[in-house]
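Quick one:
INPUT:
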């Protein structure tokens, strides 16, 4: 048992990778789902043990292949990435029961084993990005997750899913190219790919290398921003979320952009933060300006969408703006708000997209005009949608309020009253698009063709209700979210120059 404990960082990646290979060999939908379910339920145990170990004894360093860092690849777990590992694996475990019926309907039994294989590859890639301490290894895992994501999106029933997957492929390739150029510049400057070693060498680099460091920071920021869909580098996301199979949208909306944000935070604070005075560069101003633009422009576009999955996709762009706003403000409260919103938004948006998946499963549509009166036919599904929607708005008593409260406190600490006003104003716009759905679902006469509609089976309903309940719970008890996010923020800010 002690030997197993010492290899937990490797198991976090090996388990989903081997699971994906086994699922690909099985080729039977029901057995593939069973194997995927087991893997998905094991991973939160591993990440939970890693988080417990980090909180108890400090960061974990795991050298692969017997090569000590910085010469070999290192998996390094601290409070920040343990937080992200727990988020990704927990979301995958909670939503997995929803997949059986949803994937069978939208992907088909014949291709479902391939779908589950790609999901496990994507999961392994996302966990790998979060756990690795090697800058180039992060690129490898980033591409594993991206290539798997392209397939997951392309397996959607709508032919527009192929276009969405191709668009994501082009944008993702551009982002990966920028990332590799940035890592290459860092390697030229430091002769190392280990993140801790790079940070230490940059901190003592001569002043004449500052321009090259800024160039590397710029390439990395743009490349990762394409992956996380920061406005205006977001064009791939609405189509990808709207036309992918419903369960793929649930998983990707809750995890993929969050891991990319983590990677950007890691580079900004842990690697460049000790070498460059980020406050003397226009990084914060650019991030804040783009974040505010995302909060308003994406929210306005969401108001006018008739396809509800596309509406929620634009809502996700706005919510990414909130997370990046906390990173741009970069004080204790705001950074805590940005990091805790990684978790809160994952919970709320997964619930919202699962509600859409349930609608599609029962009535075959997610168009606003075709779901009039559906709340009375599917009360538990649409009740969960209301709860998660209130969280997106930031209603007191929900998890979304906690995130926005910390962001507002962080803005006030800087004396930026205007940002507080913008936070409130952008939240009011979300009332419009969430309110449109609530009004149509609960206060309109039932649409034709909904007479037989009812809540989905228990395997689909329970994960949805669990995430809706978590939206309320984490709006009241914040020890597991804001508490750990606060520790991570303190850790990141402590390394700044």
């Amino acid at each position: 048992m002690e030997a197993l404990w010492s290899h937990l960082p490797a198991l976090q990646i090996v388990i989903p990778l081997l699971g994906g290979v086994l699922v690909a060999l099985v080729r039977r939908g029901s057995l593939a789902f069973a194997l995927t379910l087991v893997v998905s339920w094991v991973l939160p145990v591993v990440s939970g043990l890693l988080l417990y170990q980090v909180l108890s004894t400090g960061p974990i360093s795991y050298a692969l292949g017997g090569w000590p860092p910085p010469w070999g690849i290192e998996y390094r777990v601290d409070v920040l990435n343990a937080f992200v590992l727990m988020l990704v694996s927990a979301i995958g475990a909670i939503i997995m029961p929803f997949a059986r019926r949803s994937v069978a309907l939208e992907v088909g039994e014949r291709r479902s084993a391939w779908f589950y294989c790609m999901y496990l590859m994507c999961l392994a890639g996302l966990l790998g990005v979060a756990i690795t301490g090697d800058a180039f290894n992060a690129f490898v895992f980033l591409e594993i997750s991206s290539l798997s994501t392209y397939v997951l999106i392309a397996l959607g029933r709508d032919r527009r899913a192929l276009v969405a997957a191709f668009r994501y492929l082009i944008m993702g390739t551009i982002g990966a190219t920028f990332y590799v150029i940035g890592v290459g510049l860092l390697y030229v400057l430091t002769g190392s790919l280990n993140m801790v070693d790079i940070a230490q060498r940059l901190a003592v680099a001569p002043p004449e290398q500052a321009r090259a460091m800024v160039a590397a920071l710029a390439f990395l920021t743009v490349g990762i921003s394409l992956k996380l869909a920061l406005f205006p580098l977001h064009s791939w996301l609405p189509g990808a979320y709207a036309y992918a199979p419903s369960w793929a949208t649930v998983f990707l909306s809750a995890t993929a952009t969050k891991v990319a944000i983590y990677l950007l935070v890691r580079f900004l604070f842990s690697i460049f933060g000790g070498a460059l005075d980020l406050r003397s560069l226009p990084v914060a101003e650019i991030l804040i300006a783009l974040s505010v633009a995302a909060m308003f422009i994406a929210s306005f576009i969401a108001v006018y969408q008739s396809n509800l999955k596309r509406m929620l996709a634009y809502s996700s762009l706005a919510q990414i703006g909130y997370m990046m706003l906390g990173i741009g403000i970069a004080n204790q409260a705001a950074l805590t708000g940005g990091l805790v919103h990684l978790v809160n938004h994952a919970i709320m948006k997964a619930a919202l997209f699962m509600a859409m998946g349930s609608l599609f499963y029962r009535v075959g549509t997610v168009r606003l005009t075709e779901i009039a009166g559906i709340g009375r036919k599917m009360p538990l599904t649409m009740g969960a949608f209301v709860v998660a929607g209130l969280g997106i708005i930031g209603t007191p008593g929900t998890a979304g309020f906690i995130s926005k409260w910390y962001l507002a406190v962080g803005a006030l600490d800087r004396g930026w009253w205007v940002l507080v006003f913008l936070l409130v104003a952008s939240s009011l716009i979300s009332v419009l698009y969430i309110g449109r759905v609530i009004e149509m679902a609960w206060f309109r006469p039932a649409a034709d063709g909904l007479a037989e509609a009812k809540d989905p089976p228990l395997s689909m309903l329970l994960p949805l209700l669990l995430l809706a309940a978590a939206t309320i719970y984490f709006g009241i008890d914040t020890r597991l979210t804001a508490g750990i996010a606060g520790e991570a923020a303190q850790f990141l800010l402590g390394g700044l120059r």
